[in-house]
Design brief:
Helix content is 36%, strand content 21%. By secondary structure, it is an alpha/beta fold. The protein is globular. Residues 73-89 have a biased composition (Basic residues).
Length: 254
């Protein structure tokens, strides 16, 4: 079975059939993509985990499912987050935290590029991964016609609910996101401002209000949490895991 790696396209990543890969490159200026027989060669081409992926995935793995399982079982220790280079604060070792949570949301729709609009039939999905010493939990889901921002919010909402279910919410936690929109809403206190204005932005209407309200409610139960940013598709093992998981959900369940 061929695997298609999209290095430059609407949504870079690994796709298990040409129809899905074609959606990412068809009409995309400067698109770069290639087909492979196994996941390892595809990851080599994309440049993911350049120094560590051979320790995670061996050459016998020839399916996306096997690769994801390898990543999950070898991710026993939380991964250090990749911080924005403009941030003066030193990177925090994630081993200082009781648990590290990675979240991601994604879409395969016509609204992810300039001039595009989300259609009701477009796929969208979210995923999270929670890692702590001796265990891990993950989850994923999806819906049609949702925006990327909504899926980023939904990923974090579901991760927070799982952490509460596990009884971890009052522990020292690290959250790693690649969505600056969601991250800034929390770290720069946009949520409080929107709430004071009746869930409106100073410049106009606020989108995805139900999701913001739910995040605001859940975050009240997390008194000792840190939220950090990592660049997507930039060799962060936890971020790559949730990216694979949400794409797998769209491939297999939608």
């Amino acid at each position: 079975m061929k695997i298609y790696a999209v290095k430059k396209g609407r949504v870079p990543g690994v796709y298990r059939n040409w129809d899905e890969a074609k959606k990412q490159v068809d009409g995309f200026s400067g698109a770069e993509y290639k087909s492979f027989e196994n996941i390892t060669d595809a990851i080599d081409y994309l440049g993911w985990q350049e120094k560590s992926h051979e320790e995670t995935i061996n050459r016998k793995d020839d399916t996306l499912e096997n690769a994801i399982e390898k990543i999950k079982h070898n991710s026993k220790k939380p991964v250090k987050a990749t911080k924005n280079k403009k941030t003066k604060k030193q990177n925090t070792q994630s081993s200082e935290y009781f648990a590290t949570t990675y979240t991601d949301g994604g879409t395969r729709n016509t609204g992810v590029y300039k001039g595009g609009h989300v259609k009701k039939t477009d796929k969208a999905a979210w995923a999270y991964l929670i890692e702590w010493d001796g265990g891990s939990e993950d989850g994923s889901g999806g819906e049609y016609g949702a925006t990327n921002n909504k899926m980023e919010q939904t990923a974090l909402i579901n991760a927070l609910k799982k952490l509460i279910e596990l009884g971890f919410n009052e522990k020292h936690l690290l959250f790693v996101l690649d969505s600056k929109y969601v991250l800034n809403a929390i770290n720069q206190h946009w949520l409080q401002g929107w709430k004071k204005r009746g869930w409106k932005r100073s410049s106009g209407p606020l989108k995805n209000v139900p999701e913001w309200k739910e995040l605001d409610r859940l975050l009240q139960s997390f008194p000792d949490s840190t939220f950090e940013w990592t660049k997507g598709h930039a060799n962060n093992r936890g971020n790559e895991y949730v990216d694979h998981a949400l794409n797998r959900y769209m491939d297999e369940h939608m």
